[in-house]
Predict the 3D structure of the following.
Amino acid sequence: DAGVTQSPTHLIKTRGQQVTLRCSPKSGHDTVSWYQQALGQGPQFIFQYYEEEERQRGNFPDRFSGHQFPNYSSELNVNALLLGDSALYLCASSPTLVREETQYFGPGTRLLVL
Amino acid sequence: GENVEQHPSTLSVQEGDSAVIKCTYSDSASNYFPWYKQELGKGPQLIIDIRSNVGEKKDQRIAVTLNKTAKHFSLHITETQPEDSAVYFCAAWMDSSYKLIFGSGTRLLVRP
């Protein structure tokens, strides 16, 4: 059983560019949450997708947007990149109707903005 | 506000000793408390969790305790091994906002 997968593993962008990160949830999971983890800190909640809609959002600007597809996979888009967007971006999946709070994380995408 | 405080930030123990990490949460509505282990270059791995209707849970060498009145929960690792070395995060789940609030992490070093 494959766990949560994310792509790409690493990414280098320059300020002002746009980036798209991808996530495939664990089999049987229908909810995807995205987190940003700065170096030396705990993950910070960005938003959560369920039934292809954003169900909840953390304290992140509109430059951060997402999408969920019918197969439950998800994308995180960040526009107008800033140096401060450099971080590890984590995707977590959970089964909403069973234990939505039990979240399993992928390996993350490390984004470096120059 | 929603906040989870975690202590200590670093912890060094001798192999075979016990390690304890403590967290405090602010929102009394929190009802689920997972612990994650994150190794270098990897995503957080769920190692144990506890719900608000339980005071203690144990899984082999790891255990978690919860004091709802004091809004405290702790991770206990007994008979530590070098492979336990990692960063550990506590978190609290907010039913009302569908999100996990994480502590700042504890870097555990187990000396052989």
Remarks:
- The mean pLDDT of chain A is 94.
- The two ends of chain A are 37 Å apart (CA to CA).
- Residues 96-99 of chain A form the longest helix (4 residues).
- DSSP finds one helix and eleven strands in chain A.
